[in-house]
Each structure stands twice: as C-alpha cells, then as structure tokens.
Amino acid sequence: MYSKKSRWRKGLAISILVLITGVWIIFGKGIGAPVLGGESYEELRIFAEALSLVQKNYVEETKTKDLVYGAIKGMLSELDPHTNFMEPVAYKEMQVDTKGEFGGLGIQISVKDKKLVVIAPIEDTPAWEAGVKAGDHIFKIDNELTRDLTLTTAVEKMRGPKGTKVKLTIMREGEKDPLEFTITRDIIKIKSIKHKMLEGHIGYIRLTQFQERSAEDMKDALDDLEKQEMKSLILDLRNNPGGLLKVSVQVAELFIKEGKLIVSVKGRDDDKEEYLSAATKAREDYPIVVLVNEGSASASEIVAGALKDWERGVVLGTQTFGKGSVQTVFSLSDGSGMRLTTAKYYTPKGISIQNTGITPDILVKPGQKGDGKEGKFIRERDLKKHLGNETVPIEEEEQKGGPKKDEGPEALPPPVESEEQDVQLQRAIDLLKGWQIFKGIVPAQS
Fold this sequence. Notes:
Elements: H1 4-20, E1 22-24, H2 38-57, H3 64-76, E2 84-86, H4 88-99, E3 101-104, E4 107-112, E5 115-121, H5 126-130, E6 137-141, E7 144-145, H6 151-158, E8 165-171, E9 179-184, E10 186-189, E11 193-198, E12 202-207, H7 214-227, E13 232-236, E14 242-244, H8 245-252, E15 261-267, E16 272-276, E17 288-292, H9 299-309, E18 314-317, E19 325-331, E20 337-346, E21 362-363, H10 394-399, H11 423-440
Parallel strand pairs: 1-14, 12-13, 13-17, 17-18, 18-21
Antiparallel strand pairs: 2-20, 3-10, 4-5, 6-7, 6-8, 8-9, 11-12, 15-16, 15-20, 19-20
C-alpha cells in the first residue's frame, strides 16, 4: 500500500510523462467549421444548460472561459493519456520547445525554496556572457519582485524579441549587495544533439529530443565524427521522450537505404500511410549500437525499431517505454491548442510497440541505485486509459509492461554520474571494440 507521499510522487511522475512523451504529426492546424450531427447537438444543449445554471446560481462569480477550459479538459481526459488540452501559454511553450529556438537570455531556471534560481546559463548566450552563474537568485525582473511570479510568468518576462533588453537584479552567495545585469536578448538555440569521439575511434551521439532541427544537427555531428575517422557509432536515445514524427524518419534514414520503410501509420479507418527512407547517401559502412531505456519513447522507439528491423544496428539497454500512438496538434481560435491521438504507428515489420516497447537485442541494466534496489519506472501500460496493442497477445503485452501497481514507479531513470559508471555505455564500447578486433582476425590456414 502506498503512503500519501508515494501516491503524490507517482501522480506527479505520471503527469510529467504524459506531458513530455509523444510523436507529433502536425502543428498549427485549424479545425475549420465544426460539423455536428443531431445527437451531438442534443448533448451540447445539455452542456449549455449546465453552464448556464453554474453561471447563474454558483455561490461565487465564475469566468466562462475557465468553465469551458475545464469542460474541454474533462472531455479529453475520457480519451487516452496523450490526448490533452493546452491553454494559450502552454500551447505557445510547446511550440517553442519543439522548434528549439526562441528570443531570450539563455538561462535555465527553477523555483527552489520559493525563490527563482538559475540552474545554469547556457554556454555562449547573452546570460553566459553577462556573467550570470548557476545558483544565482533572481530577485527582480525589470524591477518587479519575483517572489509572487510563477515559473511560467518568469520565463515569459525574460523571453522576447532579439535586440530588446531586460534587467535582472540578482542575489549571489558571497556578495553583500544585489548585482544588476542589463542583458540584450538574442535568438537562443537549444541543441538536441551532443557528440564526441570516444576511445578506439568510436563516435558517440546523444539525441535528447526530436526537434525541428534535430536531423540537420545529427548530420552535422556525423560529418564531424567522420572527419575524425570514426569507425563505429553509439547512438544514445536513453530518456528521449520523442517529438516530431517527420524528424524521427529523417534521423533513421541517415542510416537506412533509400526506398526502405521506416515506419507506417494507421488511423481509425485503417488508412495506412508509409514513410520510406528518402536518403540518397545512407551511412551503411560502420556498425551502430543504439542505447535505449525505459525513458526512450515514441520517436525514439521509431528510430530504434527501424534500425533493429533492418538489422542496421544493435539495440542495447532495457525495454523501452512502449508508446506507439501518434498525436496531431490542432490550434484553436483563441490561441489554445489540443493534442489529439489520431493514429498508431508500426515498425517496418508491421509490429506495434504500444504498451510493449522495443525489446533490446542485448539486455543491459543500468546498475543499482544507491539503496541497492533497482528502480521501477512508469511505462505506457501504467497510464490510465492507455490504448491496446492488437499485434501481440494480451499476456505478452502484460509481461513486457512496467511495474506492478504496488511497486511505486518513478518518472524516469536517473542520469548516470559519470561515463565510467555508465554500465550500458561501457558495454556498448566493449561490443564495438570486440567487433573491430574480430573483423581484423584472419582465419589460420590449415
């Protein structure tokens, strides 16, 4: 039985996962003129009656927009966990996150002990160059105290068009008096790709999210590693929650021959749409290990599944999240938005990973937590009202799922402290080193 704290932590973890996990097809698509049948019209009349009664008789004054927003959220909550409503501010933030760039200062912030604090300035941004440091307490923004600001409002105040200025008043440990910074906003680009060369000419690319520019950044990273005479590659998709469907196809086709199926999508009417590799120069001349874990979801699973099905890469790690649905994002007339599940996707072999996830070719657990116990993490099948998987038996679907109801799942596996402690990464390195050794072995003549 959970304690209240455990139940609260589980609820928060599930909320986080529902918000960040997904494959999205379209942004900014309007709904056009709504078409209502007779039955829908009758039900809407009941809704209008209920709304009118609340407005006239509720003990306190109500705002119609708040009631309507609440009704929409309630309606969508009856569907699957990845369908949701976004108020204008949240919708705008989602678009910014996916685009990967915005006008601002380049500061990662959070609220700690009711104070707005800097987690870290992003390197080579206006905040970095001005001297803002991790741990700084942002006391005022343009002379307005931050103690009553929400995190969202604080972010809105610091973002803005390139070339405009914002004044930050900062309290810093070790400084007696407040520090003032007047910083000129610039275009901040959030890179979803990090890369480096490891020992033995093993390239390493970490993809954190599938943003609009991720495929281009991936190509640039590959070009750089190839100039350094890369002989093999580790593609790290751990804790990658997903992103844009088209970008997952663009990333996968960097490694898969032209004309081969990357993923297929099927909607309610069984209309099937296939996404084929359009790459005229796919990189096929070096081995790849794809790292995945419980936090690898949706677009990450599309890439891992395509490389696995075409035997282009070895998937190493733990069972992935298991989100096999596609969301279309619709914009509404007042600036709000709606993320609606419109299809399921399937790997090149026609397998849905919904609730089951991608099974690694080589199972490697990340190691134990500090308390000596392995973490139990939330997967798709732990979310309420999740969609089923019609391509696998129910018993298999249940076996490949996440933790049982009483095991207290966490949101995501924690990041490893160092490269040396990263068990999965070290196994991938050993595997690729071994491949190079065996490749060079010439059988002895009898």
